[in-house]
């Protein structure tokens, strides 16, 4: 009796039966995976916003402290300017001149601050982009 080699046995053997999942099961699994993906993307967005908020809060605190210290310096410099101008003119006019200079400085700082705030992006750019890509893929998974 002729013995079969392992290679010839492999050729003649029936392929192992792979259980095929139904279309409904596949769609259910895809939907479940998409839900998990969207939840993870939202968690990522929350984490990004929290991290950026923490950094912004710390920076704002530093700006607040610097602002108060600067305010005190400018208050005393302004008083010194008023007293200095009062040596050559009436005290009322000296105070009015110093106040006018501060009004001009305030207007310039307001305009610069307003322009700077327009450049702030409140949304997490990367996460928004990946969510758009995920939604597009969900609409057309074969593209």
Descriptive notes:
Residues 1-23 are annotated as: Disordered. This is Phage holin family protein. InterPro entries: Phage_holin_3_6. With 143 residues, the chain is mostly helical. The chain is 78% helix and 0% strand. It contains four helices and no strands. The chain has helices at residues 6-12, 23-85, 91-117, 125-139. It starts with 5 loop residues before the first helix and ends with a helix. The model has no long low-confidence stretch (mean pLDDT 83).
The N- to C-terminal Cα distance equals 56 Å
Count all strands and give the number: 0
Inertia-based shape: rod-shaped
Q: What is the oligomer described by this structure?
A: single chain
Structural class category: mainly alpha
Provide mean pLDDT, rounded. Answer: 83
The value of Rg in angstroms is 35 Å
Major pleated sheet? none
Would you list the SSEs in sequence order as H and E?
Answer: HHHH
Region (Disordered): 1-23
Protein name: Phage holin family protein
Organism: Streptomyces tendae
Transmembrane segments: 59-86, 92-110
Topology:
Layout: H1 6-12, H2 23-85, H3 91-117, H4 125-139
Helix pairs in contact: 2-3, 2-4
């Amino acid at each position: 009796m002729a013995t079969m080699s392992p290679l010839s046995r492999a050729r003649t053997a029936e392929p192992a039966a792979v259980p095929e999942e139904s279309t409904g099961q596949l769609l259910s699994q895809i939907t479940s995976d998409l839900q998990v993906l969207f939840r993870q993307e939202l968690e990522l967005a929350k984490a990004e916003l929290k991290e950026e908020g923490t950094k912004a809060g710390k920076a704002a605190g530093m700006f607040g402290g610097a602002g108060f210290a600067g305010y005190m310096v400018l208050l005393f410099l302004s008083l010194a300017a008023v007293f200095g101008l009062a040596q050559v003119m009436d005290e009322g006019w000296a105070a009015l001149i110093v106040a006018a200079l501060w009004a001009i400085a305030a207007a310039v700082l307001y305009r610069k601050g307003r322009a700077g705030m327009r450049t702030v992006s409140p949304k997490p750019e990367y996460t928004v982009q990946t969510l758009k890509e995920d939604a597009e893929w969900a609409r057309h998974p074969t593209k």
